[in-house]
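> Could you send the dolichyl-phosphate beta-glucosyltransferase prediction when you get a chance?

Sure thing. Input:
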Amino acid sequence: MRALRFLIENKNTVFFTLLVALVLSLYLLVYLFSHTPRPPYPEELKYIAIDEKGHEVSRALPNLNEHQDDEEIFLSVVIPSYNETGRILLMLTDAISFLKEKYGSRWEIVIVDDGSTDNTTQYCLKICKEQFKLNYEQFRIIKFSQNRGKGGAVRQGFLHIRGKYGLFADADGASKFSDVEKLIDATSKIETSSTDLKTTKPAVAIGSRAHMVNTEAVIKRSMIRNCLMYGFHTLVFIFGIRSIKDTQCGFKLFNRAAILKIFPYLHTEGWIFDVEILILAIRKRIQIEEIPISWHEVDGSKMALAIDSIKMAKDLVIIRMAYLLGIYRDNKKC
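Output:
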């Protein structure tokens, strides 16, 4: 009775104490599950390429800020790759053919080998030398000693590009590469809309498959895959990204100003990294344009559908709560 009387008489204090305990418990839980990018090993701060004499070389990676006035490279293409010897050739053929025709020599491809076990790096170097006849100025490979995840590979690639624009494109070639023109046009329009002539307005353009929801490319997917897709989109909507219909398309373009405001602050290295990129852009009021592109399903995905879908859902909640609780901060680089 005394305990009950005490609770009644001090209900406000008890309620406040329970509320504080709940918030602290939530904070601790989110903190424990939050992400910090793995620092690169020394060998991961170098790129591997073919020199002018056809020899394999390893050199220090450039830093993102070193080439902010470099007009020689218009477009950098970052391709995260994990065991892609069976798929990457078609993607590279499509990309390099377009890049040569459209931009001459003002482009570079940066492949980030995410700890592959199928000799992806050596395979890419071989076709670079024998088939595409490219050297270190246009074709570079960053090889991870240990797998970090797709987000970690994309982040590392973008922190060491030289181009005015940076595109990340999936190694499977599911997106029609020439559609990058649409993304560049969209970012250019955002840039020219700025009234500040001294600085470049940050801009993001993302490829979208949302217009294909009722097309054969999506309908042919398994029922489980489509159910998981719709469930994930619902979670994304609930947790705050309501203006973008397709967050997961592996075809996204950023101008240099946007790259500098997003990628040094990116925590997530797993599949859900796309969502954190967009959350950062929205929080920093960076304009995002969603552009319909041509896309087709390609076999050989490295994603374990059930397990990775659960991980993505968990990580989505963690990302959102980490920003709300101040564990992740917009102005603190990782």
